[in-house]
Amino acid sequence: MSEAKKDRGYVHHGNNLKRTREIIGVKQLALAEDCGWSQQKMSQLENSEEIDEETLKIVAEKLGVTPEFIKNFNDEKTIYYIQNHNTFRDNSSTQHFKPQINNGSVDQLFQLLEKYLQDDQKKTAQIEMLTKTVIDLAEEVKRMKTGK
Fold first, then answer.
1. Within a 13 Å sphere around the CA of 12, how many CA atoms are in the beta-carbon half?
2. Which of 5, 16, 144, 148 pairs with 54 at a CA distance of 20 to 30 A?
3. pTM of the entire structure?
4. pLDDT reading at 73 higher than 90
5. Distance CA 45, CA 17 (A)
């Protein structure tokens, strides 16, 4: 980016989106999936100088920020703000910060668990059937030995 663009307050929405995502600690693929997009589309957005309002709203919501935050993001101002307004110096924590990120892991976990339970039920039924067959055969052998 040229110095002239920097001096005029040039804003690159894609770069701002990328920096916001990185600071929050979200992977590109996770955010893309959460938005219902491919990672390629997210990469293209992060390379775009301008991002339309609707798309910004979607991404901002998933990151737990406002579209204005992404539009106006500035590394230097953010670092300055954190250094001068850091409220964590008093040993407080971020326990109340709850980002709204859902990358589908929970849904996948439930699907795998349901599949595991179904497989387990099938195997249990097979074992019960085999056990009954073995018991029946053992009784048949007993009858044959006793001659009844």
1. 14
2. 5
3. 0.50
4. no
5. 8
Residue numbers of the domain that contains 30? 10-88
Domain limit, last residue, from 88, 118, 134: 88
In a domain, 52, yes or no: yes
Give the pLDDT confidence score for residue 23 in this predicted structure.
84
Tokens representing residue 37 in the block: 């997009």
Nearest to 13 by CA among 39, 54, 103: 54
Looking at residues 8-36, what average pLDDT do you find? 87
Residues 84 and 146 in one domain: no
CA 125 to chain centre: 36
Burial of 11 (0-12, 13-18, 19+ CB in 10 A): middle
* Same-domain check for residues 31 and 71: yes
pLDDT at 104 over 70: no
Are 39 and 29 contacting, i.e. CB atoms less than 8 angstroms apart?
yes
- Same domain, yes or no: 115 and 83: no
